[in-house]
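Weekly sync, protein design subgroup
Attendees: M.S., D.O., the rotation student, P.L. (late)

Item 1: inverse folding check
M.S. brought a backbone from last month's batch and wanted to see whether the design step gives back something sensible before we order anything. D.O. pointed out we never logged the input encoding, so this time it goes straight into the notes. Structure tokens as presented (159 positions):
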């Protein structure tokens, strides 16, 4: 039938070019196992719905420990994909959950807290205890109030 996967030069998206032009009627329609055939005779590959934890950590630019804390605070858990994945030993997360974490205000707070702890350690190493105490007072606190507001919309529901 002439279905060969190729990579386009511009977008890097995997496409499958068909040698025969598919008709719009259901009689002679060309079916493909990867995805639906468009009207131009090209088939675009579906994007994955699940990504492994290592890839999610790389996308968010955080450490593995910080990623775990972030998932716990936002209530995001790993999922088992419906389709068979290549590696059963990996932990998979939904792509939309990772996008949600990228926009999360908790992520910015955790990054700011990490920066402030580095500053405090550096001043303690230099021997300036007073400056370190001042930095501890102005260090950002991680508010959990908005997490409670997301989970419980009304105060009565939280108890």
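Designed sequence read out in the meeting:
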């Amino acid at each position: 039938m002439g279905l060969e996967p190729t990579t386009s030069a511009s977008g890097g998206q995997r496409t499958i070019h068909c040698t025969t032009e598919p008709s719009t009627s259901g009689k002679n329609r060309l079916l493909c196992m990867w995805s639906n055939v468009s009207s131009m005779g090209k088939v675009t590959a579906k994007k994955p719905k699940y990504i492994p934890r290592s890839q999610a950590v790389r996308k968010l630019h955080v450490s593995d420990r910080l990623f775990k804390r972030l998932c716990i605070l936002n209530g995001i858990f790993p999922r088992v994909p419906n389709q068979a994945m290549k590696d059963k030993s990996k932990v998979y997360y939904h792509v939309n959950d990772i996008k949600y974490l990228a926009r999360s205000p908790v992520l910015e707070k955790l990054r700011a807290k990490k920066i402030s702890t580095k500053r405090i350690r550096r001043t303690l190493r230099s021997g300036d205890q007073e400056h370190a105490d001042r930095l501890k007072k102005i260090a950002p606190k991680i508010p959990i109030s908005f997490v409670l507001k997301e989970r419980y919309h009304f105060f009565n529901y939280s108890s």
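Discussion: Residues 50-103 form one domain. The first helix runs from residue 53 to 60.
Action: P.L. to compare against the previous round before Friday.
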